[in-house]
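Researcher: I'm preparing a figure for a lab meeting and need a structural model of a single chain. I don't have an experimental structure, so a prediction will have to do for now. The sequence is pasted below. Please return the structure as tokens so I can convert it later.
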Amino acid sequence: MAAADPARNRPSPRGRASRGVLLAALLSASTAQAQLPEPVALALTQAGIPDTHLGVVVAELGSPAPLLAHGETRSLNPASVMKLVTTLAALELLGPAHTFRTRVEVEGEIRDGVLFGNLILRGGGDPALTRERFWSLLREVRARGIREIRGDLVLDDRFYELPAIDPAAFDQAPLRPYNAPPAALLTNFNSIGLRLAPDAGAVRAGLEVEEALPLDNRLVLTEAPCNGLREQLDLRVEEGVLRLAGRYPAACGEQVLALNLLAPPSTVAVWFRALWREMGGRHEGGVRVCAAGDEARLLLEHESPPLALLVRDINKHSNNVMAKMLFLNLGAARFGAPATWDKGARALREWLTEKGLWSEEMVFENGSGLSRIERISAASLNRLLQYAAARPAYYEFAASLPATGLEGTRKSPLNGSPLAGQSWLKTGSLNGVRGLAGYVLGADGRRRAFTLLINHRNAQAAGPVQDALLEWSASLGGETTASPAATAGSEFKN
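Model: Understood. Here is the structure written out token by token.
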């Protein structure tokens, strides 16, 4: 699934030639540029990270020779920086205006506002069917004259063909939203909010959809500062009950925590019941997960936002389940439905090979970076960024990256610094992994492709290293008064 097939992915002669020129330029410059800038080297020493555990490339756009290259060919885990490959491939292969569609079909007769038969939701891989957009879909059903369903709700998710996924397998944190499994029919990123608030010396708790699971609330209200809230909570599903234990600081006020509680079909079902009831609808049947029958006929198609907007959500907020679905959708677009992990990996490899960007160290598993086996080098990532800058999709791609100090996963680092708003960078964070890649606007007005990958047990202390390299990259050709600021550790999802 993750490893490349050498025969299938062998680059074309033209691809080998163009990649060879870029590699030669990188390697010829690496000897002279291998020594890290002094502030970066110092930050690495203070973090306890040897320079043999990172890959760095900083290069001006359009220039074959990098300004800095160190460990650039090392095969490293990029964490969520891998989303750059998936989103750029999608923008190029599908186009920024592409949308994903959820079909609503009916079996039976509609008479006097009653559907005497089944309502069918056929998933088409829409990664952004949020609660609000699902409400809009159901509102369109109502607008077509259905207020009551005397039949079953049929969930048709055969557009994806995936093995069973254990949400606890990656890091034993199955309720975290970044561990939500993808599905062809997915609602609200498969999450349900848990609302917590201090209330008369206790902690009030309730789910956004009450019937999702019963609660066993044993939370204790404390007067501690509101720091590391999730680490103070013990949340788990046992025997069909969501059990809440641990301490809740009163200083946190009201909080809503997104939780991955149920399998995707069950999440769709509970959101359907809640929203359908809210808009005055009635449903007297059950819920089935199966293919629609031959007599099903189309009632409406509900489109996702355009891909140009979807990739912004994926990269700015590092949404893993959306990235995984985009990876699967690429496979289906290139090789036909049903979508599989293997087809997604093959689609990326073939696209990279066609563009002369494939490199043998690359390994793809799910395209989101939430993986222990995905690999890429700093040199390969920098080539991808340079390639993107010369393509029509560049403006949509660059706009999808979080602006440092202003938004998304880069809102906190360097906030208030003169460097805020001067770089657009995708973050990557796993235990033992930190990554940062994107574009930097230098003090001389030149744009630079920036890649930094760190794989080491002390990677969580790499914030000052990232900031020092970013300041160095931005200050070339001019003066800057910014000083490196420590970057707070990120959760697994970033």
